[in-house]
Amino acid sequence: MSPVLSASLPIEFWEREQSKRLATLIAETALHTARIYGCQFCDIRIVWSQKERILSRENRIEELGGSFDCGMGIRVLFDGTWGFASSNILESKEAEEKTKEAIELAKHCRKFNTRRVELENLPSIQGAWHQKVVVDPFEMPLEEKTHFLLDLNDKAAKSGAHFCRSFLLFHKELRVYASSLGSWIEQTFLRTYPRFIITVVDSKEGKFETRASLASPRSGGMEVVDKKAFLKEVEEATDQAKEKLHAKPVRPGKKDLVIHPTNLWLTIHETIGHSTELDRIMGLEANYAGTSFLKPDQLNRFDFASPIVSVRADRSQLGGLATAGYDDDGIPSSWADFFIIEKGILKNFQMSIGQAQWIGKEKSNGCSYAQNYNYFPIQRMPNISLIPSEKNERLEDLISGVDDGLYIMGDGSWSIDQQRYNFQFGGQLFYEIKNGKIGQMLRDVVYQGNTQSFWKSCDGICGKDEYQLCGTLFCGKGEPSQLAPVSHGAVPARFRNIDVLNIRLHS
Amino acid sequence: MILTETETKDLLGSIISLSKADSLVLEARGGLSTNIRISKNSLNTNGTEKSLKLTLNSAFGNRTASYTLNQLRKAEIEQGLRYCERLAKVAPPDPEFLPPLGPQFYPHSFSYAEEMGNLSIEDLGRMIAHAMDMLSREKSSGIDISCYVKWQKYFIAIANTSGLFGYQKFANLQLTATARTHDGKGSGWAGALVFHPSDINPEKLIESAIRKAIAGREKISLDPGHYTVLLEPSAAVDLVGLMLFSMDGRMADEGRSVFSKPGGGNRIGELLFPHNITIISDPSDPRTPGSIFSTEGLPCLRTPWIQNGVLCQLIYSRFWAKKQNKQPIAEPSNIIMSGSPLSLDELIQSIDKAILITRLWYIREADPQSLIYTGLTRDGTFLIEKGKISKALNNFRFNQSPIKMLQNVIAMGKPLSAIGSEIDEFPAVVPPLLVKDFNFSSASEAI
Questions:
Q1: B87-103: average pLDDT
Q2: For residue B265, what are the CA distances in angstroms to A208, B248, B256?
Q3: Are strands A41-57 and A163-179 parallel, antiparallel or unpaired?
Q4: Cβ of B68 under 8 Å from any chain A Cβ?
């Protein structure tokens, strides 16, 4: 039998010429309707989205599933008020109806709108951007992917794991954007997420421990999955999970932490990424994701972190999950390259269109994203990363400067308050640091802190040789809640005098 | 897009007739929804959505695959079906495969009321107008209101080549509101998920959020520690719900759950909680209508999970039930927890000292072994002293197991429809819970 290639679908929509003709007709209809009804601005996103999920546990493929969906989302600005409508039916008649529906919604909501939307001067763009892919997973034989996962599980079992779940997720999208400013943008994305989770059980004592893979999802094809490294890691992970079962519980208290990028990315995401979103700062997320401890007038003045800390936003980063040519407002990625924190000082907020005027700026900075065609685009993070030190310090240099501390790898549980002050993070692996050297494994560790004091306690950052890009496909925000992909680059960093808890003692 | 039961039966029947696989399981979902989001006294975003989606699950012997599509013209369905069948043919054999379930008898649920299904944009606008009216009355108090109203009606249907068919329609409305004082010192929240328009009182909800925001302006600081707390239903439902979702029988039997018994097996039949703790699910309860069939097509019947403190059931998939020689038990499709006749105010009057918690936020599992969750209090944390709310308090981070929380319940109030932060679209009726020794591990500066 010839190999089954997932790319044998999705049907005609991926035929570029055909989809382009269809998209052109739909977009022209929507934009024309909006013009006739007197809208100030209109944009339309047409999205074709293909996904594949292969989930496994032990010796079986639990779920082998593909999906294909497409549809359009039309946003109108009518008398200073937004209206949005979406549909899964890609026909020009539907585009006309949905545009009218969006206008109707805007008219109904106008009476509640005390903050009229004022758009800055926006560019008209004819552009295209396509994610570079070396090995398209949708063009790989299915057997290759299922065998990889079953091999992983088998290796884990042979190493002594009682359970191993593993999965591969692939997401490919074609997004076409058109606006009443004459913009026409085509982009294709491909994101790949491999993961395994080992569990070992001590049934006599009624205990179990887990260890998940440390790799993050990335933009790109199957080339982002280092199969050999994964197969090696699953054996290490099993040994480490077994070691965790009988590891010494951490003694709580103030400790110095050396945090690996596989853990630190999530801390960057929650404490810096979300706190510097202008819509939160202005109170637009107050009913759900929350506000921020930052204020608009703190730009260029707020002492956010120690002077060795610089954090940059970048929508062009190679392999970044938020990497794109243009955001979902049709803004080029070149606008989304800026310092959020420079040498410890707050330098910029993230903005989507219509927000720049709130802080006296002339234009936004390319931070808009919508989960799919059926979501209103809102302000979302580009890739946000910690800049490596120019001193080129190594991990062992950071560790050698710690008398009593912990080395933390991998992301675990995470939680932060609605204004981004108080956080608590877990992890995958914890090692004691005594007198400048890594010691035995510990368990039950979580660390807590306050965003500003945590970042001000940072006194060591490694050089670029230890840079690692991590991230998530599932960052949530907005009402209705939307997920967004985002990457965070980091190097190992050292933080002094941080509250460490033993989670089982603190309950 | 809403299809009627007859239209759905015809559609799914026609797809089954096209199937070349040994078996085919189908699920169709479609709906219409509208949302309006107000932030800080003004429109933020809005939207309408029309959707229709079909999931196919084909099997040849014990090789299976699924495919989901949202383009449902005949040619596209047929193409999707052929593709799904090609995937299934090369899928590795599944040692846990079970043939599709035969016809089932599903209970009735009050999940769709015509009055709710017929709500319009104008109706939603009127609800928002209530918020704006309240705002204009409260302007002198310096209040910012943010609220979200989402109306949706949708259907879910399942069918398979063994003759099973199930169809259910839903219509509901969600309204949540946050009031914040201009000075940033006070924040209050209230919310509801209802299945009949007469069950919501937007004015009362928004008034409650405003009242809490104003009362919360002058705070005193309290150190973290173990306290007696009074969790309002919106706070209680998150921890109760997260515990309920962790009640997987297989996980427990395999030794990796808080419900595992040391030495092997699970804890079904054990008295884990005080005698007054009873938690069931029942989709036919008109207060909180749930799904009538599970993801596997099993009927969601009235199921006691904890009865008078005894763990009496765990969720059993068809495969695991067969392996363990048990009846399969569908996952809960709603949460119904027993309480007492006392209103929240009456409960407060009976309390000498406790911390009142309006809602919880950003709740994540911090330790699966002991089922410890972490998270924070938000939008209304107060001190109760001598039967009255006496002072506003700072917020806290908690590290707490819902198991231990339910073991420490010392009193309960009247169960009410509740919407939490994590359990936010799941029907639930939960009482306010008075709990001793609730663990706050640190204070939060967030308002």
A1: 96
A2: 14, 13, 10
A3: antiparallel
A4: yes
**Cβ neighbours around A52 below 10 Å, total:** 23
Q: A interface mutation test: which of B32, B43, B239 has the most A CBs within 10 A?
A: B43
Q: What is the DSSP string of B378-389?
A: EEEEEEEETTEE
d(CA A247, CA B267): 26
Check if the beta carbon of residue B92 is closer than 8 Å to that of residue A60.
yes
pLDDT at A242 over 70: yes
Contact between A191 and A171 (Cβ < 8 Å): yes
Tell me the C-alpha distance between B258 and A493, whole Å: 35
SS3 B223: coil
B341/chain A closest Cα distance in angstroms:
30
Distance from C-alpha of A152 to C-alpha of A58, rounded to nearest angstrom = 9
What is the predicted ipTM? 0.96
Q: Which of residues 122-181 of B touch A (CB under 8 A)?
A: 122, 125, 128-129, 132, 144, 146-148, 150, 176-178, 180
Examine residue A492 and say whether the peptide bond preceding it is cis (omega within 30 degrees of 0): no
Q: In the predicted model, is pLDDT for residue A15 greater than 70? A: no
Total Cβ atoms within 10 A of residue A18: 12
| Contact flag A446-B67 (C-beta cutoff 8 Å) | no
Interface residue B41 vs chain A (CB under 8 A): yes
* Inter-chain touch A415–B363, beta carbons under 8 Å: yes
Burial B280-307 (b: 16+ CB within 10 A, else e): bbbbbbebbbbbbbbebbbbbbebbbbb
- Which residues 278-307 of B are in CB contact (within 8 Å) with A? none
* DSSP-assigned letters across all residues of A240-284: HHHHHHTPEEPPPEEEEEEE-HHHHHHHHIIIIITTTBHHHHTTT
Do B445 and A421 make contact, defined as CB atoms within 8 angstroms?
yes
Cis geometry, peptide bond prior to residue A480 (ω within 30 degrees of 0): yes
Torsion of the alpha carbons at A498, A499, A502 and A505, rounded to the nearest 10? 170
State the pLDDT at residue A84. 98
Is B364 part of the contact surface with chain A (CB cutoff 8 Å)?
yes
Mutate to test the interface with A, among B41, B48, B210 (most CBs of A within 10 A): B48
What was the pLDDT predicted at B235?
98
